[in-house]
Structures are given as C-alpha cells and as structure tokens.
Structure to design on (411 residues):
C-alpha cells in the first residue's frame, strides 16, 4: 500500500463522496512518487512533473506500476520552465510541498497557469507558503548550499490566490499530522489547501456581468446555466460562425475543447493572439471554410453545437444538407444552441464577403417548419430572439422572424 500524504487522502475522500470519477491528475513535484502511484491505481491518468530526473525514472521502474504506465506521462522540467501549452486541463492538481520551490519572481506566472489548467469543478490540493525558497534550482539540485526562506505573502494574501475556487479546507499544515515527529517546521507559515474551482453557476454572476467577461451571447449563458444545473462537465464544443470569438474564448476558459469554424480567417488570427487565451490554445481547433463546404468527416461528434446568428448565411438550397450534418454531429444528450430563421440570405458569400451590395432575405420556413427541424431534440427553449436581446432596430431591417433555441438531443 502506498503511503500517501494525509492531505491527498482527505481530498480524495471528499471527491469520492461526490461520486466524481477519476479523470486527469497532475502531480506537481512527485518526490518519491507515492502520490502518483496511488492516483494511477485509483484510475487517474497522471501527468507527473519534477525537476529531479531520477524521481521520474524511479517511478517508471516500480514493478507495482507496470500495469499502469500507459496512464502515466512524465515531464522533466523546473517548475518555472514548464511548457504549459503542452499540458491539458486537469480534474485534480496536486502540489504537495512543492510550491515553495518556485522562485518568488516567477510565482505569479506559475500560479496563473496552475489556475488556468484546473478544469471548472476540478480540485487544487497542496500547500501554500508565506515564505518561499530564495535559491534557484536546476535539474533537481540547489545552485548554492543555503536554502534561506524569504517572506512572500500573508495568510490573507494566500487566500486571495484562491478567488476562483471554493475553499473546502485551509488549515495550518500540522493540523493533519498527529505526531510531533511528523510536524513541519519552517520559517513563516505553511497552509494545507483543498479547493474546488468554481463554475459559472457557483460564481452566481448576473447575465450582464457574465456578458462583460468575454462579450458572450445571452443565449449561450442561458444554455450553460441549464447544462451546469445538470452537473454535465465541459466536453467538446463547436462554434459555428465564430465571429469575434467571445463565445469561443469563454468556452475554452470553462474547460471545453472548442472547434471554431468561420469563413473569415482574420478572426482566427486575432483570437489566437490574445495573451489571456495562451494557456487554452492547445484545446482550440480552427477551421476556415464556407459552412456549406465543410468536410464533416473530419469533425467529431460534440457535446455542444453553437450556431449564434450564423445559420441564416447558409444558401437556402444547401440548408437541409448542412442541418442534417449538424444534427448528426451532436452526441445523444448533447445540446444545440443557436438561432433558426424563417428567412435566409439569398446572397452567396465567397470567403467572408457578400458578392452583391444588397442583402436580400428570401422566405424559407414557417415557425412550425423550424420546430420540425428539431424532432430529434427535446426543446428546452424556443422564443422570439427579441425575448433575450434588444434587437428591435436590427429586426426591422430583416424579413421574417428569428427564434433563439436551446435543444437537447434525445438519447
């Protein structure tokens, strides 16, 4: 039996009481490897990081772990030099007695990446320190013999690092150690932390507050509230007609893998250049194409298909073919979120531009005809678009009616 630290044992008990299945864990500083071993045996896929190569080699040579090595990824790096772009978001981030080895001038950058790489609803389990080690380490060894601890943050400031989490446990490190011989004695204070990253629902933000975060659609916010109320975890999403990218950015931050499709290539370039999205780019796939020319065979089924103010750009004679592919590419139990239109644009667009100057809308389907498109779905919301948006002026420039839809594909 692996002798794991009591903080991880306590955290796993809390996770298991909520019937959360094992997912992806990251062990940030594996040391002797017992925590990595335990997580592997519990069914987790584990990414183990350490700046001491020998630790990584030793864990791979353990005979008891031979059946689990396919679940293990090892990364040899100093904490400040980790290539975060190559690391997925995880369900459990473990940093046991390791964050004090991060250089003070690099700590906030490392911490920002840690937070970004914990999925909403995922856990951070580890220690936070009022004092950090001043010495630089390379390849597992201190450059100098001295290991002086220097003041860094107060208890209140450490708690401030956790503002994106619901803190379930925050206590002096020695509260979990019964024997004085096991007690941790360091300059300053060390706090053991178990914290769960908030979801939108937990944040309890208003529609307007959420809209201000990434300038995202109110319809998407309404849909995400319904999805999260059912404790459905982020999966794969398609943003069909990405536009300026606010919705794509928001979904990436929530932990979704996003396939963004648009005929305007420049929007992809601009989105990828945003500094705030750098940690999430490994989970973004972009496809530059006309909607009616997509290679659907290259696209997987998704948990969330989003088509916000975009389906009216499909030529009427191509709509049913595109819609058939949309329906086929939503997993049973997955969601369609978008607008359906009684009139479609007649103008054919090449790349991102309309060939003729005028935009002429032609009749397509009645309200009942649009509802008929959703026969494979349980419709959760079907209302005139004006119910969520103040679009009277824009609506007056269009013929027909637009309907906002949230629908869940039947299982």
């Amino acid at each position: 039996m692996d002798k794991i630290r009591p903080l991880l044992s306590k955290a796993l008990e809390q996770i298991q009481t909520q019937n959360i299945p094992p997912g992806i864990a990251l062990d940030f500083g594996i040391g002797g490897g017992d925590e990595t071993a335990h997580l592997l045996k519990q069914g987790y896929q584990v990414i183990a990081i350490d700046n001491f190569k020998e630790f990584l080699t030793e864990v791979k040579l353990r005979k008891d772990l031979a059946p689990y090595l396919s679940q293990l990824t090892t990364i040899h790096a100093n904490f400040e030099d980790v290539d975060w772009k190559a690391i997925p978001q995880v369900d459990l981030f473990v940093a046991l007695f390791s964050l004090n080895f991060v250089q003070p001038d690099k700590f906030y950058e490392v911490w920002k990446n840690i937070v970004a790489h914990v999925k909403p609803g995922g856990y951070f389990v580890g220690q936070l320190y009022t004092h950090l080690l001043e010495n630089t380490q390379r390849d597992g060894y201190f450059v100098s013999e001295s290991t002086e601890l220097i003041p860094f943050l107060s208890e209140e400031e450490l708690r401030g690092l956790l503002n994106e989490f619901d803190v379930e446990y925050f206590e002096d490190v020695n509260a979990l150690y019964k024997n004085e011989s096991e007690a941790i004695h360091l300059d300053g204070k060390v706090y053991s932390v178990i914290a769960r990253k908030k979801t939108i629902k937990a944040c309890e933000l208003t529609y307007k507050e959420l809209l201000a975060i990434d300038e995202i659609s109110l319809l998407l916010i309404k849909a995400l509230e319904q999805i999260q109320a059912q404790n459905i975890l982020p999966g794969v999403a398609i943003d069909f007609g990405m536009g300026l990218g606010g919705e794509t950015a928001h979904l990436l931050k929530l932990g979704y893998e996003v396939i963004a499709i648009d005929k305007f290539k420049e929007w992809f370039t601009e989105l990828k250049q945003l500094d705030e999205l750098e940690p999430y780019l490994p989970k973004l796939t972009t496809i530059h194409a006309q909607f009616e020319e997509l290679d659907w065979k290259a696209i997987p089924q998704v948990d969330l298909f989003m088509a916000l103010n975009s389906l009216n750009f499909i030529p009427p004679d191509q709509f049913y073919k595109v819609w058939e592919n949309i329906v086929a590419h939503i997993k049973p139990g997955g969601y369609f979120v978008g607008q359906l239109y009684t009139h479609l644009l007649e103008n054919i667009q090449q790349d991102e531009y309309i060939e003729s100057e005028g935009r002429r809308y032609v009749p397509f389907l009645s309200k009942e005809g649009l509802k008929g498109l959703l026969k494979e779905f349980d419709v959760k919301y079907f209302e005139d678009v004006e119910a969520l948006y103040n679009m009277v002026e824009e609506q007056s420039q269009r013929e027909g009616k637009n309907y906002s839809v949230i629908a869940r594909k039947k299982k």
About this structure: The two ends are 42 Å apart (CA to CA). The mean pLDDT is 83. The chain has 13 helices and 22 strands. The first strand starts at residue 24 and ends at 28.
